[in-house]
Every structure is written in C-alpha cells, then in structure tokens.
C-alpha cells in the first residue's frame, strides 16, 4: 500500500503548493476574524415589539373600551389607555365611537414602551382583579430598592400583559442580546439561552456551512483539482507511475482521494474556526458541528467523480471543469423541479386533521382544503379545493354525530386569523351528500373546534373559548331537532350584547356571537403557545397556556356544581405550574384519568387528570419532538406522533407480582414512516394514521393490527411526480439535500418547525439518509466507470 499512500501524499503536497489554496486560506481567516467579535449577553425581556402581539385588533378594541366605557376607566385597561400619548388616545376614541381607524402595531408598541418608564398608571388595588403569573407575583413581593432597572421594566411589562389577556404572545422571561465588539445589536431576539442555542445550531451555522462549503469551496476545489487527472495522463508522468507494481484502478482511486485534499484542508480550518467562535464567543460548544468536515468532503467528491471521468476521457482540465459545471446545473435544475413538485403538488394534498362520520373519512389538507374519501372510487373527493396558493384556512373538522360533521372556512385566513368576511360554522350532513350548509356565526378569528360530549361544540379563537349546543347548530342550519334546545339562553345573551353600543368592540375582541357563550372564568385568556384537551364525555377540559395546566369543569358536572358565581362559565378546579419557560410549545391528551403533556426539550409528563398532580415521566430521545397525541380509549394508552415521522405508544409498564405499576414507557415505532397526523375513533375503537401525503392506515386498537389500508388513486400531476420526477431525483444525486443532512447533524434534530401563523405549525422533516444514499451510489458508479475506462485504455 506504500505506493498508493505516496500518491495521496503527493496530492496533499500539490494542494499545499496551490496559490488558490492559500487565497482560500486567507479568505477563511478573514471571515473568522470578522466573526470573532460577535458575542451575546442575557437580560430580562422588557420592551414590546410588533411581533409580540398575538391579537393587535383585540388590543386596539380593549384600549378603546378603556377610554369610552365609564365602567372600564378605573379598571387596569382604562388606566393604561389613559396613559397613552394624546394622538394615540384620540385615535382610540374614534375606534370606540365605531370608526374604522388603522393603527400600526409599531405605534402601539412604542406607546407601551413609554409606559415601562413612567409607571404612574399602575394602581395595586386595580390590578388585584387581574390574573397574575408566578413571575409577576414574585416581583410584586420584592421591595422596590431590590429591583434593578431591568427588573422594574420587566415587572411593568408583566402588569400590562396581565391587564390585557389574550393580546400578547408568550415570550421567555429572559432574552439574548447579540453584541459585536462590545456593542449591542439594535434588536434583541426575545428567546432564552436554550432557544438561542437551538436557533444558532439549527439555522445560523448550517446556513453558513451550506453557502461556504456547499458552493464556494466546491467551485474553488473543482478549479484546483481539475488538472490532477489530465496531468497524470501526461506520457512522462503516467509511464513513471505505471512502472511500479501498482494497480491502475487503485492508482486512480488514490489520485481521487488525494484530489479531495484541497477541500479537506479548507473545510477543516473553517469548521474548526466556527466551532471555536461559537464556543468561545457564544458559549455554544456543539461537537456535532465537526460532522460538517466529512460531509462537506463527501459532497465535493460527488462533483469530483464527474471531473475525474471527464479528465480521463478528454485529458483537458477546461473540459473537465465544463462538464462538471453542466452536471452541477443538471443537479440544480432537478432539485428545483423536485422542490416545485413538493411545494405545489404534494404538499397541498397532505392530510392534516382527520375525522370520521357515517363510515366516511374526512380530512383537512395543507392546501387549505377539505376532502372526503370515496371508498367506491378509491379517491379523495374535494369538498373545499386544495391549492398551494390558497389563502384560505380550514378549521379542523369535528364530528357532531354519526351523520354530521362541522367545520369552517376562513377566507384569507392562512396568514391572518381574522380572515375576511363573515365566519359561519358549516354543517356537512350525509343526507345532503355532504354539501356544506351555513349555520351559527362563529366568534371572530375562530381557529379550532372541539367536540364537548355529544351535545355541544367548543370554539377557540385568539384568546377565548366559547360553547354552543348541537341543537343550536342544527336549528341555524335549518335542520329539525328532536328535543328542546338546552342552550336556548345563549342567543338571548348574544342579542343583549348586540344591542349594546359596545357590540362592535366586543366583536373586535373576539367576543361571543349569537348562539355562543364564553366558558372561560372571568379574566382568563388563552394565547399561544397553548393546547387544549377535552374529556370525551365533555365533563371537563384541561388547558395548557403560558406555562400552566388548568382544569376547567362544566357547570352541570358533579365537580363544576361546587363552584359559586360561575353560572354559564366553567369553573377552575385544579392547576399546575410547569417548570421552565412559559413560551415552550407542547401537546396534551386525556385518556381516562391520565393527562399526557409533551413539551419541547422536556420528557413526557403524565398527570392525574382530576388533580393535575404529577404521576411519572417518560424519557425520550432529544430528537423526538412531540407533534400530536391521542388517547386510545382503554383508559391507559396514548398514540404519540413524533417529529421523525413515526407513531409510538405511551403505555404502562407491566406491573410486578403484586400488580403495582412500574410507570410508563415509550414503545418502538409502529406502522408506517412519514406519518402526518393521527386520529382516534372512539365509537369503533380505530386508530387512523395518515402518512406519505394522503395514504391512511386504519388499526384496531385492541391488537394494533391493520384493518384497512387506503391507497387512493393519484391525480395526473401526482402521477407525473411519482413516475417521472421521483425517478429523476433518484438517478441524479440530490446534492442540495445534503444541506439538510448537515442541518440535522449540527442541530441534533430530525425535523424543524415552521409556522405560517400561531395556529398552523408544520413540521418539516429533514432528508437525512436519502441524499447520502443517492450520492454514495453515484460516486461508486462514476468511480467504477472511471476505473474500467482507465484499465482498458492504452494511454
């Protein structure tokens, strides 16, 4: 092997003597020198920004009400509104008088930031009626002299948030400030240190690596190494090499390995430099970043294998560079076409939320559509059209009874929760061939529907939770009902509100509409990150909001009747304050007397559903981000969907000889990969797994065996994608997807969360193995052809 190592060593010496290599070295050192002054510091989250508002319209209406409603002027919202700048107060009064006034969020944010300095608006007696989080209670108990300026501003911000529930997004209590040479950047990130490290590892570092290593260094590497094979084929050089007892194939492979020396030397310096900058300046010691070195060399070898074959065939460095450039263009075009098919053809058909009724399966889609599976024709029938450019949003459908489902279509609601135009609850009945019929008017900006037992439906909007009855819905849709309407008092409440001079402000704040009544206790609001789990019988629900778990019981339930003064509203019977930042997202589910909670970066927590007392935890690998969870109807098991695209069971561990439980465990993946959503049908005890865009597997939860597989017929464009585009992407190596492999290695995650709005979070899974396999096969094929050509030709 010594001759071959000598050839590799000569290639390293040749690379070190290249002027281009030293130019690249200098450029890398200058880049690292430019990045080295970057630093960070941590401080409390104080100032408001435009993106801190979850519902700016609600805020505008609340401030206007505080100015024009005499009953609100002495309340916290009235005191805050009175402290606003004069010009803004004048505009808010016009809003309260019914005028259409556009006020930018940045103007509201600037006005609130002024209140952080001058806190004369605060009155302790007025704020006793507000719902205060644990952080605010602790700060209120701190003596004035013990508060720093930053803490004082933080307390003022929390008081403003408490006075306007349902207005603000949940933010971490501490924020990271980027610095450069000791000077603060003009804007902070409003994320805590853990989230900051995730942002750097999952976005910033992979982006730098992709651009510098995936484009610049590969282009320079091909320029430098294109002459290695043609130079080797020169008569004097080749005869000298072949005079030794060496194999032609191994000689060519040795030259190929040696040709990777240029990129290896450059990549090693750049990656090690970024690793040290991230560690020394940002305190992010991420050893996974070092995986970029072999992956980047592997990416270069894909292009260099083409350059090697071209150099053997034409013995010209210029032609080798030209052929490699053409190959890179082909890879780029194929990747772009594949991305277009993914975004415009496949993604819109991806099933999002499923529900069954009358033996039919319905699902909302990522393309803003609603589909029903036609078993006779084995295809998805569009009730609302799915389209990549669709700006509408479909509220997840809910089964009202065996023959009826309800949903809503928010016009223009893809990026705006309020949408445009009136928002009606839509009733789809089997007897009407599932044609949508308008029913009761939904509360403004409704984003989610929940079935609450057999006789009522809950609607969640930007900050409130409201309820209507089944009979109200059917009457409004022109259907006959078999019994007296148990919710006949609800329209009366709404009518009284409609006659009020504050009705428009109430509508702007997402208040009740005809047929709906609020269920949350007075002063409580639910803002993202939030999650709701409703008891299947509709007796209670559990809300996760702003770092708290709250159990609410229905007034007519045995527990709910114990509360006083909560007529028409559900009563809070238990709560639990969660550890960690209140801004963490999570998923919850109820099964029997057990509540499951899964938040990012935390183990799965299981609680007693009645008292919210912690029961046990289930440790999960770091890469398993919780996407969804449903109970399986047996009082103990959950189906848990994770970010890697698999469904797993959360189940009790078999007890010991005395029958005592040993806690819970997470099972190995069950069913197919690339699972998009899960749903459970309690009536038939069936578990539905939607996967690979629009395929569905239906399992019996008793034995977890597949009962039915839905493999619908493909549309023309989907057929073209499967039969033409997918084979092309398989044959042509997708070098661009290796960037996702790098991002997964650096971040340690198999997927990334992308949100179009606070209620539409989509998990985009990294393609980790596919590009590695396709590129590996391509390298082997190209080198095999090159070795055969080199061995059978007389040079």
Please give the largest β-sheet.
4 strands, antiparallel
Assign an overall shape.
Answer: globular
Q: Got a strand count?
A: 33
Number of helix segments?
22
- Give the fraction of residues assigned to helices: 25-40%
User: Structural class given helices, strands, pairing?
Assistant: alpha+beta
Low-confidence stretches: 484-501, 558-567
> How are the strands of the biggest sheet laid out side by side?
4-5-6-7
Distance between the termini: 23 Å
Strand content: 15-25%
Kindly report the average pLDDT value: 84
Integer-rounded radius of gyration: 31 Å
Summarize the structure.
The protein has 795 residues and is α+β, with helices and mostly antiparallel strands. The chain is built from 22 helices and 33 strands.
Tell me what the structure shows.
The chain is α+β, with helices and mostly antiparallel strands and 795 residues long. Among the domains are: 2-35 and 194-344 and 732-792, no CATH class; 46-170, no CATH class; 526-692, YVTN repeat-like/Quinoprotein amine dehydrogenase (Methylamine Dehydrogenase, Chain H, 7 Propeller). Helix content is 39%, strand content 24%. The strands form 9 sheets. The chain has a 4-stranded antiparallel sheet with strand order 4-5-6-7, with no helix packed on it. The longest helix has 33 residues, at 193-225. It is globular, with a radius of gyration of 31 Å. Mean pLDDT is 84; it is low at 484-501 and 558-567.
């Amino acid at each position: 092997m010594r001759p071959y190592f000598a050839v590799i060593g000569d290639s390293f010496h040749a690379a070190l003597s290249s002027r281009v290599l030293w130019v690249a070295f200098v450029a890398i050192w200058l880049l690292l020198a430019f990045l080295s002054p970057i630093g960070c510091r941590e401080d409390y989250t104080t100032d408001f920004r435009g993106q801190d508002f979850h519902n700016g319209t609600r805020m505008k209406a609340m401030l206007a009400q505080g100015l024009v409603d005499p009953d609100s002027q002495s309340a916290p919202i009235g005191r805050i509104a009175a402290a606003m700048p004069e010009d803004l107060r004048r505009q808010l009064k016009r809003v309260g008088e019914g005028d259409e006034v556009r006020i930018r969020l940045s103007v509201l944010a600037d006005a609130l930031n002024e209140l952080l300095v001058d806190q004369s608006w605060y009155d302790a007696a007025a704020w006793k009626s507000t719902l205060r989080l644990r952080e605010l209670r602790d700060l209120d108990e701190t003596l004035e002299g013990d508060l720093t300026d930053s803490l004082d501003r933080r307390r003022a911000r929390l008081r403003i948030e408490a006075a306007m529930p349902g207005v603000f997004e949940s933010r971490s209590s501490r924020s990271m400030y980027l610095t450069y040479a000791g000077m603060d950047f003009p804007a902070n990130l409003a994320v805590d240190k853990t989230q900051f490290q995730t942002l750097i590892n999952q976005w910033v570092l992979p982006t730098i690596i992709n651009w510098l290593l995936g484009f610049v260094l590969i282009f320079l590497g091909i320029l430098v190494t294109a002459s290695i094979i043609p130079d080797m084929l020169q008569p004097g050089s080749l005869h000298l090499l072949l005079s030794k007892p060496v194999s032609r194939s191994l000689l060519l492979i040795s030259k190929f390995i040696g040709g990777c020396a240029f990129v290896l030397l450059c990549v090693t310096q750049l990656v090690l430099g970024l690793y040290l900058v991230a560690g020394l300046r940002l305190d992010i010691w991420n050893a996974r970043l070092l995986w970029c070195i072999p992956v980047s060399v592997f990416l270069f070898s894909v292009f260099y294998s083409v350059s090697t074959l071209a150099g053997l065939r034409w013995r010209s460095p210029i032609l080798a560079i030209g052929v490699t450039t053409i190959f890179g263009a082909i890879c780029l075009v194929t990747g772009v076409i594949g991305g277009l098919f993914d975004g415009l053809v496949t993604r819109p058909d991806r099933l999002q939320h499923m529900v069954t009724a009358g033996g039919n399966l319905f699902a909302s889609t990522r393309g803003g559509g609603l589909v029903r599976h036609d078993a006779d024709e084995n295809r998805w029938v569009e009730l609302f059209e799915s389209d990549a450019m669709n700006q509408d949003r479909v509220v997840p459908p809910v089964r009202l009874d065996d023959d009826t489902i309800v949903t809503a279509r928010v016009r223009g609601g893809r990026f705006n929760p309020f949408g445009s135009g009136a928002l009606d609850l839509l009733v789809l009945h089997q007897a009407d061939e599932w044609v949508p019929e308008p029913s009761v008017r939904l509360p403004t900006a409704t984003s989610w529907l929940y079935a609450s037992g057999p006789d009522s439906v809950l609607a969640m909007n930007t900050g409130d939770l409201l309820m209507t009855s089944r009979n109200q819905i059917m009457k409004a849709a022109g259907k006959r009902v078999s019994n007296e309407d148990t919710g006949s008092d609800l329209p009366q409440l709404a009518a009284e509100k409609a006659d009020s001079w504050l009705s428009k402000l109430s509508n702007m704040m997402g208040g009740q509409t005809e047929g709906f009544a609020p269920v949350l206790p007075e002063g409580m609001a639910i803002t993202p990150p939030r999650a709701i789990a409703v008891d299947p019988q509709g007796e209670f629900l559990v809300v996760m909001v702003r770092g708290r778990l709250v159990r609410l019981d229905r007034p007519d339930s045995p527990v709910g009747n114990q509360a006083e003064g909560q007529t028409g509203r559900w009563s809070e019977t238990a709560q639990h304050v969660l550890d960690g930042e209140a801004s963490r997202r999570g998923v919850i589910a109820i099964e029997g007397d057990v509540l499951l909670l899964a938040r990012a970066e935390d183990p799965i927590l299981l609680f007693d559903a009645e008292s919210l007392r912690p029961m046990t935890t289930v440790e999960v690998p770091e890469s398993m981000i919780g996407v969804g969870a449903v109970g399986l109807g047996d009082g103990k098991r959950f189906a848990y969907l994770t970010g890697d695209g698999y469904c797993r069971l959360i189940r009790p561990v078999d007890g010991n000889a005395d029958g005592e439980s040993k806690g819970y465990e997470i099972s190995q993946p069950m069913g197919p990969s690339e699972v998009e959503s899960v749903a459970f049908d309690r009536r038939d005890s069936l578990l539905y797994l939607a996967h690979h865009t629009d395929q569905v597997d239906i399992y019996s939860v008793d034995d977890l065996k597949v009962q039915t597989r839905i493999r619908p017929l493909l549309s023309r464009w989907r057929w073209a994608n499967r039969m033409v585009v997918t084979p092309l992407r398989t044959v042509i190596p997708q070098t661009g997807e290796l960037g996702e492999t790098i991002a997964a290695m650096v971040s340690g995650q198999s997927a990334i969360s992308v949100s179009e709005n606070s209620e539409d979070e989509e998990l985009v899974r990294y393609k980790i193995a596919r590009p590695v396999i396709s590129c590996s096969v391509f390298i082997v094929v190209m080198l095999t052809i090159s070795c055969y050509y080199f061995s059978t030709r007389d040079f």
